[in-house]
Specification:
Layout (H helix, E strand, L loop, with lengths): L4 E5 L2 E4 L19 E6 L2 E6 H10 L7 E5 L12 E5 H11 L13 H6 L2 E3 L2 E5 L5 E3 L10 E6 L2 E6 H10 L8 E4 L13 E4 L1 H11 L2 H9 L1
C-alpha cells in the first residue's frame, strides 16, 4: 500500500496531503463539511464525518453543544491530528487568534464597490467582516439594530430578519415554532456570522444574556 494512504478509522482509507490534511471524498455540505448518511434503527440519519472520526478517537460521543473543530481550517479534513473537541465560543476564539479571515484575495487593494458589498453569507445577504470575526449585515436595519431583508412572495413583499434567514440556511430547515434565532457568542444584533448564531427558546436566550453580563452587574441585579 502507498505510504501516503492511511486508515483513518476502521475501513476508511484516505491519502495524506502535503499539508498533512486527510481530505474526505464524501459529498460536502454547502459549508464545506463532509456528511455521511447512516441507517440507525431503520431510519437514515446524516452525520458530520469529522465528528464521527473524532468520536472514534475519543471512544465516546462529543459532549452536547460541543463540536469537532479543525486546527487546519479545512472543513472536510478528517486527520485526527487536526481535530479537537471544543465549544462554539472556544472555536471562534481559536479561529480569531489564528486570523479567521481567509482568502482575502491578492495584495492589491480591493475596489471600493467590492469593499462595500462584502462577502455573501447566503444568497442575497452580504456582510462586512469585523476584527472580532463578527459579520455585520449590509442590509437596512430596524431601529432595534436587527437587519431585515425584503422578499417577494406571491406578489407581495414581506420582511424577514436577516440573522434568522442565516440560521435557517445553516440548519437546512425553518426555525422551530416557539424558538428564535439568537446570538450565542456576540451581542451585536447586526451580526450574521453563522458561527455566532443558534436556535433557542426565549428562555435559552435570557439565560445566555444573563450569563454574559458582568458579575458585578448580576450581583446588583440579584440584590434588588
Amino acid at each position: 500500500m502507498d505510504d501516503n494512504i492511511v486508515e483513518v478509522i476502521p475501513g476508511i482509507f484516505r491519502e495524506v496531503q502535503p499539508t498533512g490534511c486527510i481530505i474526505s471524498t464524501i459529498t460536502k455540505s454547502s459549508r464545506g463539511y463532509s456528511n455521511k448518511k447512516l441507517r440507525i434503527n431503520g431510519e437514515w440519519k446524516t452525520f458530520n464525518v469529522p465528528r464521527l472520526v473524532w468520536e472514534n478517537i475519543l471512544g465516546r460521543q462529543i459532549r452536547t453543544e460541543y463540536f469537532a473543530c479543525h486546527t487546519c481550517e479545512v472543513g472536510n479534513c478528517i486527520n485526527p491530528n487536526h481535530l479537537w473537541e471544543g465549544s462554539r465560543l472556544k472555536n471562534s476564539q481559536y479561529r480569531f487568534k489564528k486570523g479567521c479571515i481567509k482568502d482575502v484575495g491578492n495584495t492589491s487593494a480591493p475596489t471600493p464597490q467590492k469593499q462595500l458589498r462584502g462577502p455573501e453569507i447566503i444568497s442575497g445577504i452580504r456582510a462586512k467582516i469585523q476584527p472580532n470575526c463578527c459579520r455585520i449585515c449590509t442590509l437596512a436595519k430596524r431601529s432595534d439594530g436587527y437587519a431585515i431583508k425584503g422578499t417577494k412572495i406571491n406578489g407581495q413583499t414581506k420582511t424577514f430578519y436577516a440573522h434568522r434567514l442565516v440560521v435557517e440556511d445553516k440548519l437546512g430547515r425553518p426555525v422551530k415554532p416557539g424558538y428564535l434565532a439568537y446570538h450565542n457568542s456576540c451581542d451585536d444584533r447586526g451580526c450574521i456570522n453563522p458561527d455566532y448564531l443558534w436556535e433557542g427558546t426565549p428562555a435559552d436566550n435570557s439565560r445566555d444574556a444573563k450569563r454574559k453580563k458582568p458579575l458585578s452587574f448580576r450581583s446588583r441585579q440579584d440584590m434588588s
